[in-house]
Design brief:
The protein has 225 residues and is mainly beta. The protein has one helix and 19 strands. Strands 1, 13, 14, 15, 16, 17, 18 and 19 form an eight-stranded antiparallel sheet that branches. A seven-stranded antiparallel sheet has the order 2-3-4-11-6-9-12. Strands 5-10-7-8 form a four-stranded antiparallel sheet, with no helix packed on it. The longest helix has 4 residues, at 26-29.
């Protein structure tokens, strides 16, 4: 198992956002990527851990043919854009937008006088020209919640062979998976395959056994072949 420590990376950003780029893929970003960042697995192409300045925002911008997941880790977000304009997001909620062939525009805003923290993750769709769409999830402590991926014909998530789950783990709770994975510990600390990891650690390997030492949130990416 390999570990990439967020706090060892240089910080970048744009608009009112300061962020660390942990996953960047040439398929969507070309050669304009950090040498220290990792490539994703499957159609997973981007992961950034960001903080918005007080009253800051990302500025209105457009996406096309990419699925964008926004995990609110601390504070709040007000969502503006062509999909679900005006949606309020609170800590630990997950917003998923499918751009498809139509595309969408959005601006994510920190409405408060203190910093917030947001994780953004991108996955390329498997089929071009999909309709745009919006989904919102509220993961619960003690449970594993799928927020992306799965078979066509179901409506709980946007379909994909790249799966994204959120594990909201209580102290001493454990999780075991098989196969290739990437996972990001957004909150807490624990032991992954007998190695200590903490908030801000991205891990990858074959097979994972994670045990939480305290309340922890693990964002997990796997492939459903």
């Amino acid at each position: 198992m390999e570990i990439l420590h967020r706090d060892n990376l240089e910080q970048g950003g744009f608009a009112d956002i300061r962020e660390y780029y942990l996953v960047e893929d040439p398929r969507i970003l070309g050669n304009d990527i950090e040498e220290t960042s990792w490539r994703g697995i499957g159609n997973f192409v981007y992961l950034a851990d960001a903080k918005y300045n007080p009253k800051g925002n990302s500025r209105l911008h457009r996406h096309k043919e990419v699925d964008v997941m926004t995990f609110v880790l601390e504070g709040r977000v007000v969502h503006e854009g062509s999909l679900k304009n005006g949606q309020d997001l609170s800590a630990l909620q997950v917003q998923v937008q499918r751009a498809g062939g139509e595309g969408f525009s959005h601006n994510e805003i920190n409405p408060d006088d203190t910093e917030n923290r947001v994780l953004q993750l991108w996955v390329l769709p498997e089929n071009q020209g999909e309709l745009s769409g919006y989904k919102l999830y509220q993961p619960e402590w003690g449970k594993l919640t799928r927020v992306y991926g799965g078979e066509k014909g179901q409506n709980e998530t946007f379909d994909s062979h790249t799966l994204v789950d959120v594990a909201m783990m209580n102290e001493r709770q454990s999780l075991t998976i098989q196969g290739e994975f990437m996972a990001y510990l957004t909150l807490g600390k624990g032991t992954a395959n007998e190695q200590e990891i903490s908030e801000g650690d991205l891990i990858r390997g074959e097979g994972l056994c994670f045990s939480a030492e305290q309340k922890s949130q693990l964002v997990l990416v796997q492939l459903n072949e």
